[in-house]
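call fold(seq) -> C-alpha cells
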Amino acid sequence: MTISAFDIYLVTLADKIVDPAGCIAGTALVFSLFVVFTMLLGCDTKEEIKKAKSVLKLLCVIVVVCGSLAVFIPSSKTIAAMYVLPAIVNNEHIQNSTGNALEALENLTKEWLKDTVKSKDSNPTEEHI
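ret:
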C-alpha cells in the first residue's frame, strides 16, 4: 500500500475539520438553549413562536451535523495509526528482526546478571542496595 501526497493532505485536513466543527456545534447548542428559554419566557404571539421554532430547527440541524463531524471524523493521529500499524504488524522483516532483537536483549540480560553475581561473590564485604 502506497501513501500519496493526496492521502497526506486528507490526513492533515481531518484536524482542520474536527476542531471548528466541534466549536460550531457547541456554539449552536448554546444558542438553541437560549432560543428555547426565550421562547418559553418571552414569546407572546404565534408569529414569534413560529420564528423561534424555525430558528431552533436550523440550530438543531447545525448541532447534529457539526457534532457528527466532530465525533466521527478521526484525528490525524488515528488516521496515521490506521495506515502505519497494519503495515508494521504484517511486515515479516520487522517481525523477524524483533525476534532477533529480543534474543540479543535476553542474552545481554543473562550476561549482566552473571557479571552482577560474580561481582557480589568477589566482594562479600561490600554492601549492595
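Residues 92 and 98 are 10 Å apart (CA to CA).
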